[in-house]
Specification:
Structural class: mainly alpha
Distance between the termini: 126 Å
Number of helices: 12
Radius of gyration: 33 Å
Oligomer: single chain
Length: 279
């Protein structure tokens, strides 16, 4: 009798323990669902079990698809359009890529500028998408940011005119960008006319002494030092496509005039040095 009582108590204790575990661990309960109008019960099936996980974008893909990455891609398209890039245009593009790398570093709060620069240069060198595709992607990211769009068009014009003339292919690309970004005709024409008027003026070359003064270098300085100074000045006065200085400021007034003066002075010194070396 005592043995039977003991066995009964053990069974009851085990049952209570299992019931408590059942209540405390709902995940262990069998998942079931009921069909309407049916007495059948079937085991729950996870509808997402066989789906592939959503891939995580790499850093390069994230940058390539960002507003900054699309700007770099459009710069690439503009540079490739006429098959030639003057020294000033190359410097301006490089400065812009540097600016973008710094901005991306600030966004990510990580000091990985060299890696980001490498990605941006890769985007510049390997962009195969059309101008239409790139610009429409940029438009999707800048909805309601008309001034930003207009500033991009002005910046592209300033790059295209860096060699003192607007090539046919360059003009077509910029017109396409303006159209896809829905830039008003009056706004585009105002920018275009301003650049045309500026570059239509005959810009007198500086004298050699004036050229040295404009760059802030001395006649006895070697060409390597002069080139470094030139690059620093271009960086100081290059157009601010990232809008740190305000969207309402004119690239023409704040950058173009000064840059052309710097560039002409540099070209005068280069030609003088080249002529002397050939004699």
């Amino acid at each position: 009798m005592e043995i039977l009582l003991f066995v009964t108590i053990v069974i009851v204790v085990i049952a209570v323990i299992n019931f408590k575990d059942y209540l405390n661990n709902p995940q262990k309960r069998p998942r079931i669902e009921y069909r309407e109008n049916s007495g059948e019960v079937e085991e729950y099936q996870n509808p997402y079990k066989d789906q592939e996980p959503i891939p995580t974008l790499s850093r390069e893909e994230k940058i390539r698809n960002s507003e900054y990455g699309l700007i770099v891609a459009l710069l690439s398209k503009l540079a490739q359009s006429d098959g030639k890039v003057c020294e000033l245009e190359l410097e301006l593009m490089e400065n812009t890529i540097e600016d973008i790398a710094e901005a991306l570093c600030l966004q990510s709060a990580m000091n990985q500028k060299e890696e980001i620069l490498e990605i941006l240069h890769k985007i510049f060198d390997t962009t195969h998408q059309s101008v239409e595709t790139l610009t429409q992607s940029y438009a999707n990211l800048t909805k309601g940011q008309y001034k930003s769009r207009l500033k991009l068009v002005e910046y592209l014009l300033s790059l295209a005119y860096a060699d003192n003339e607007l090539g046919v292919q360059e003009r077509e690309i910029i017109l396409d960008v303006a159209a896809y970004l829905e830039i008003a005709n009056d706004d585009f024409n105002a920018l275009y006319d301003a650049f045309e008027a500026f570059y239509a003026q005959k810009q007198a070359d500086s004298t050699l002494q004036e050229a040295y003064a404009i760059l802030g270098v001395k006649e006895e300085d070697d060409m390597e030092h002069i080139k470094k100074t030139y690059k620093n000045l271009v960086r100081e006065f290059h157009p601010d496509i990232l809008y740190h200085k305000g969207l309402d400021q004119s690239i023409m007034e704040n950058s173009t005039r000064k840059l052309q003066s710097i560039n002409r002075a540099y070209q005068v010194i280069k030609e003088h040095r080249k002529t002397n070396e050939s004699h």
